[in-house]
Design brief:
10 helices; six-stranded mixed beta sheet; 2 domains; 10 strands; four-stranded mixed beta sheet; 2-enoyl-CoA Hydratase, Chain A, domain 1
Length: 259
Amino acid sequence: MSDLIKFERDEAIATVILNRPQKLNAMTKPMWGALAGAMLALSADEALRCIVLRGAGGKAFSPGNDISEFETERSNPKQAAAYGELLHKALAAIRECRHPTVALIEGICVGGGMEIAACCDIRICGESARFGAPINKLGLVMAYPEIEGLLRLVGRAATLEILLEGQIFGAAKALQLGLITRVTSDAEVEREAYATAQRIADGAPLVARWHKAFLKRLESGEPLTQQEIAEGYACYATEDFKIGYQGFLAKTKPEFTGR
């Protein structure tokens, strides 16, 4: 992985770090490419059970794209399309990741940073975190693949409020809109995010993947096939099911194998 996208691992929990603290983790074209590669590789790792995404330095998750790149990398529609292709691959890799993802948000989480967080399954921030997408002040639109994640998360009315007003708002407002799952004190946000990741990792990993897949399928709005309905009972044939119910009866903590 690129030095601008760092990777750490603690047993079944991986951490992906946007690592440009001197610029508050503002995203560059190489960073988007590296983020996509990192998430695709981690999604394929059978031993993982949860991924935490965060920014380096403790002051920001990310303020979005580095504006200084506009002159060299996004100065016309052709360049912007090439840049957008990398950005959208990264967002899709997060959104489509098989493993549960947790956004650990400290400080600024604006623009592309907010789009990254919106693609995560759970988003936990400190009380001083700040959100928004003031791109109307740059004369820019949020492209379809980017706006899709925000729309799915907070709905049409809140998405329009965020985009049309272009305001920067706090954690309480983000929680009210449904942009954030949970708000803690700044001192507790790291502990809470990793405690959340550990609770996820302690569960049956196949079940977590199934739940993510089922929710995505239901969001399509298409009628379920009989084969898809039957998949809801496939868990009964897994080793993890036996481990889980036997542990419950014995009052012992289950040690799931992912099989």
